[in-house]
Structure formats: structure tokens, C-alpha cells
Here is the input.
Amino acid sequence: MPNAQKTMNESKLQIMNILTKIFLLIIMLTGFTIETFGQDHGIYHVKFDFHHSRRIPNHHVSVDFQRYGDSIMVHVISEPMENQGEQFDKSKIDTVFELEKSEFDKVVETVQKINCSNIAAGLDYSGLDGTTCKISHGGISTEIAYTVWTPDYETKKRNLEDFMEACKMILKTVKLDPKEIF
Here is the structure.
């Protein structure tokens, strides 16, 4: 009888060990799932597109952030107005680099603060000269885009502070001076 009881206790111990391992595996998988999917902002791209009607250097500036997992690639383009001579060739930029995810998260946080109601309230502003500025962001198959005419003109009156803050954050993140762009 002692051998039978010893065998039964060993079986119970083995079952408890297996259940403990399964429980730990479930906890680890839950943690992994929450870390991977649950606390993510879901934004995989942010793009800034700027056109100036008359400026020669920085006539067109584009900043494109693309997220692949935790890797962020940034493509920055700055082009002078066409057919203005070789003296403006030095202002050309076309570069790609990797960005820290924490920096991308700051850009996303600022872009998500843009209030579309504020932009809609200022739709009656437009002109022939000036700038056109577009910020778009989205997930894998979705996108929200804001296009604003000359956002640095009467910014406060037009309630575009959040939009301008996002523009400045994007430019500063890629080491471009907003004062040289706007």
C-alpha cells in the first residue's frame, strides 16, 4: 500500500507541475499579447507635405515616417522651385534614416492632438499665394489627412495652434528649422 500511495503522490505532483507550467505559459502569452497589441497607438505612418507658392529654397518639403514594428524609417525631401538655377541645388535634401520609436511616438502624440473641428471652422480661409500644408497619419489600411492653406497666417484666430504644433514637431524631429520652412 505504501508504494501505491507513493505512486499516487508522485502523479499528483507531476500534474501540479504541468498545471503550474501551463499557468505560467498563459501569463507569459497574455503579457506578450498586451505588450505587442494592447498598448499600441496603431499609427504606422505620418506624412508632412508642404508647398510654398513663391519660395525658391524649401519650395516643397516632404517628411514621411514609416513604422515597421518598432523600426521607424524617415524619408526627408526638400526641393527648390524648378528652373531657378544651380545656386539653389545646395538646398536639396533627399535622405532616409532610422528614428527611435520614442521620437516617433512623440510625433504621433502631437499629430493626434489636431482637432478636425478647429480646422473645419477655418475653411473659409484661402488665397492664391501662400503655402499648402498637409499632415496625414494612419494605420495599415486607414488614413486621416488635414490640408490647410497657410497655417501660419492668423493661426490663433483660425484655431490652428494644434496643427502648427504638429508641423513644428515633425520638422524639429528631422532637424529642419520651422522658421526656414514657414
In short: The two ends are 90 Å apart (CA to CA). Confidence is low (pLDDT under 50) at residues 34-39.
